[in-house]
Amino acid sequence: MQLESWKRLEISLVLSALPWLEVYKERVQLEDGRTLDDFYRVALPDFAAVVPITEAGELVMIRTYKHGVGRVSLSSPAGLVNPGESPLLTAQRELLEETGYAASDWRPLGGFTVDGNRQCGKAHFFLARNATRVAFAHNPDRNEVVEVQLISPHNFLRAVEQGDVAMLATVGAVSLAMLALLAENGLRATGFNPETTL
């Protein structure tokens, strides 16, 4: 059996609040010929999230209030991709603005749709090695107060277990970064110790 894409029969814009989101109502035809008259798709802007790692093997994270979850959370530096801006440039800009850090070695970890059913934007993840502080953090978003926190991978995993990390994007980005480091040359060679990290 070969799976096939649904066919869009009609699309209507329900809500437009650019640059933040658009909501579409679609009438779609399924593989077996049935139709759904009210499939909703949420179009959000793409964003980039970065996992910065210092030469000492610490993660450069931020702690900030996230109104979507209604609480303060530990997260990776991240931000929306501006029109005409590459995800890598976004990640580099957000790292510098939110933390005052820059990195000399960047590796893309992939781009992933946030919600396979509703769309909800695409997350672009990056690993940034040799992160060093080069300036004071200067976040242009006056509505967001950011606290920079250096944390070992072991303590990050503990923070996830304790519910201190609210965003799946942060967990996904750090997980992909750790897997990339492990695949490249082993965690020990990059400053991570598997016995105390995993």
Structural class: alpha+beta
Mean pLDDT figure? 91
How much β-strand is present in the residues? 35-45%
Shape: globular
Distance from first to last alpha carbon = 40 Å
Low-confidence stretches: 194-198
Pick out its properties:
198 residues; alpha+beta; Nucleoside Triphosphate Pyrophosphohydrolase; 2 domains; four-stranded mixed beta sheet; three-stranded antiparallel beta sheet; 4 helices; 12 strands; 22% helix; 42% strand; globular; disordered C terminus
Quickly describe the structure.
With 198 residues, this protein is an alpha+beta fold.
Walkthrough of the structure:
With 198 residues, the protein is of the alpha+beta class. It folds into 2 domains: 7-43; 47-185, Nucleoside Triphosphate Pyrophosphohydrolase, CATH 3.90.79. 22% of the residues lie in helices and 42% in strands. The chain is built from 4 helices and 12 strands, in the order βββββββαβββββααα. It has helices spanning 87-99, 153-161, 168-185, 194-197; strands spanning 7-17, 21-29, 35-43, 47-53, 59-66, 71-75, 78-80, 101-102, 105-115, 119-129, 132-133, 146-151. The strands form 4 sheets. The protein has a 4-stranded mixed beta sheet with strand order 7-4-10-9. It is globular. The termini are far apart.
Element layout with pairings:
Blueprint: E1 7-17, E2 21-29, E3 35-43, E4 47-53, E5 59-66, E6 71-75, E7 78-80, H1 87-99, E8 101-102, E9 105-115, E10 119-129, E11 132-133, E12 146-151, H2 153-161, H3 168-185, H4 194-197
Parallel strand pairs: 4-10
Antiparallel strand pairs: 1-2, 2-3, 4-7, 5-6, 5-12, 8-11, 9-10
